[in-house]
Give the backbone structure.
Amino acid sequence: MHHAGRSRANETVFAAYTSSKDNGKWKRIRWLEVHIANLTSTPYWVTYLRVLQEAIWPGGSLPTRPRLIPTPEQKEETRNRCLECLMKLVPDFVPEVLGVEKYKMSWQVVLESLQDPHINRHLVYCMCDLLLEFLVPESSNEDFQKSLFKHLSGNTAA
């Protein structure tokens, strides 16, 4: 039976999880591995980058005027929609195991954490670092970094 808000892949993982009572811990770890691999797969990255591009360059061009500051009601509506989406991210058995209120509170803590500018800045730096590593794999090589630094500083002497 397919539940609303749960993908077919989630259904398969959920069925595998519930089909065996043995090694429940390992089944949960495997479920997490599958979902992390799914969320970090190329199709998802394409979606993430498109959303980011549209957020930065709406309609393919830089905004001509500053964004309007959302009203407190709009912020609350956005927060509620985010919470609703996050709560549908995992199969139904997780809130059943944790309890619905504890599960909801956990996602609320995640959303509240993302309101911290320091955490957001760190996340952006980490994503940029990962993107650079993906686009320029040799960027993590110390010799490459030294060579690049010398080139950028105009110091070509060894």
User: Anything to note?
Assistant: The chain has three domains: 1-65, 68-115, 116-158. The first helix runs from residue 8 to 19. Helices lie at 8-19, 24-39, 42-56, 72-87, 93-98, 100-113, 117-135, 142-153.
